[in-house]
């Protein structure tokens, strides 16, 4: 079943030197339960594309459909839809500096359930799987880049969203932690049937997914 469909997406940025066309009519279909990898050169528009698909930004042209329903980013219900259905691992993690690792991870679940104990417990479980239990009380500025990254991944997973967009989730990790993280994502995909769209530079990851696209010259190719 088609979960996410993007049709003819166009996105340009206006710069002093003129208009920079990043996406020029991009199409994409992602089925429910699929793992999709997107690779491409730095600056090719991968983060731009994820932001559009995650409804964090608006395309200049083109449409995005979830389960066959056209999404209008300006719609008031979009925030609720996004909070419920979508998990996002940003390229730059945006952790909340005043909260510990476990509190950062627990936050989305606490906001949704108002159950602090349960949220902290679930956050600790996830952090354990990511080899981060020992660091759970550290604040973001007391964590390494790779540790922050794993916190950001746990935060995106805690509410078991239907689809997770991950922007270079293993970018700061060594081989061991990178493998552990990928195994965790694959486990979530298998057990919960969650759909993943992963931007990565690592061809190893591109090999384990169901579909691999390359973003080049403003469109996706296989
Ligand atoms: N807000 C913005 N204003 C102007 N130009 C932008 C903006 N955001 C991105 N760009 C430009 O758009 C292009 C695509 O950026 P994007 O961040 O999507 O690339 P990317 O494929 O994610 O790169 P990387 O692999 O380095 O993360 C780049 O040339 C970038 O400089
Ligand atoms: Mg990027």
List keywords for this structure.
single chain, 222 residues, alpha/beta, Rossmann fold, four-stranded antiparallel β-sheet, 36% helix, binds adenosine-5'-triphosphate, binds magnesium ion
SSE layout and pairings?
Layout: E1 2-15, E2 18-31, E3 35-39, H1 46-53, E4 61-66, E5 69-70, H2 78-85, E6 86-89, H3 101-113, H4 116-129, H5 145-157, E7 163-167, H6 175-192, E8 195-199, H7 203-208, E9 211-216, E10 219-221
Parallel strand pairs: 3-8, 3-9, 6-7, 7-8
Antiparallel strand pairs: 1-2, 1-4, 4-5, 9-10
Helix pairs in contact: 3-4, 3-5
The structure holds adenosine-5'-triphosphate and magnesium ion.
Report on this model:
By secondary structure, the chain is of the alpha/beta class. The protein has a single domain, classed as P-loop containing nucleotide triphosphate hydrolases (Rossmann fold). 36% of the residues lie in helices and 29% in strands. The chain contains seven helices and ten strands. A six-stranded mixed beta sheet has the order 6-7-8-3-9-10, sandwiched between helices. Strands 2-1-4-5 form a four-stranded antiparallel beta sheet, covered by helices on one side. The longest helix is centred in the last third of the chain and has 18 residues. The chain starts with a strand and ends with a strand. The site of magnesium ion (MG) has 4 residues, from helix 1.
